[in-house]
Hints:
Blueprint: H1 9-12, H2 19-69, H3 72-86, E1 94-99, E2 117-118, E3 125-127, E4 131-133, E5 136-138, E6 143-155, E7 164-173, E8 176-188, E9 196-208, E10 213-218, E11 233-238
Antiparallel strand pairs: 1-2, 1-3, 1-11, 4-5, 5-10, 6-9, 6-11, 7-8, 7-10
Amino acid sequence: MESAVEITPEAAVPGFPGSGMHLRKDLRRIRCAVLLCLLSVLLLMLPTAYLLVGNLRAPSACVSQVTEERGPHFLKQRAVAAVTETLSSAEKPRAHLTVKEQDLTNAVEHHMPIVQWEDKQGLAFTKNNLSYSSNALVIPVSGDYYVYAQVTFRGPIGNSKPRSVTEVITKVTDSYPEPTQLLMGTKTLSENWKGWLQPIYLGAVVSLEEGDRLMVNVSDIKLVDYTTEHKTFFGAFLL
C-alpha cells in the first residue's frame, strides 16, 4: 500500500518555516486595506451627494421666494429705482434754502417753532420739482435723499439766556398724523454773556416717499441768526 504524503503550507516553501501563517496575515491585511479604501470613498461621496440633493431642491425654493417678492411693495420699489437710475445728476431733485428774517407772530407757545426760508434769492434754489411750500420742502419722487440743515443761534436776547439750544429736522407725511423727528441736535451754551454764536449742523441719508414734507424746528426762533445766508441753511437732494 502506497503511503500518502501530505505537504503542509509550511513545507511548501522550503527554508521558510511558518510561511503559511505569514501568508494568512498578509491576506487579512489586504482585506482590511480594501475595506478602508471603500469606506474612504464612501465618506468622500457623502458631501457630493448632499450638494446634489440641495441643488435639486433649490429651484422650488427660488420660485417661492420670487413669488413672494413680486408683491406690490416690491414692484413699487423696482419702479422707483428704475426712474431714479435713468435720471442724470443734473435732472435729480435738489434744493438749497437760506435763512431770512423770521416772522415771530407765527411762533406757538409750548411748541418748537418752524424756521422760515428763502427759496429764490441769493444762494437759494429749488430744482427738478423739489419745491418749497408752507415752510417745508415737498418731496417729488420717492428715493434716498441726503437731507441737511444748519441753524446758527446768537445772543444775548434781552436779559435772559437759555441753557441750551436745539434744532430738529422733521418729516410730515399724509400717512402718519404726527410729525416724525428725523434728526435732532442740542448744544449747551457757555457762560459768556457778552455775546455768543452757536451753530448746529445736521445731515444724513434718509429714505423718503413722494409727498413727504420736511421742515426745521428750533427751540427758540428769536435766537436764530438770519444776518447772513451761509450761517443758517436747509436743503436736500436725491442720491
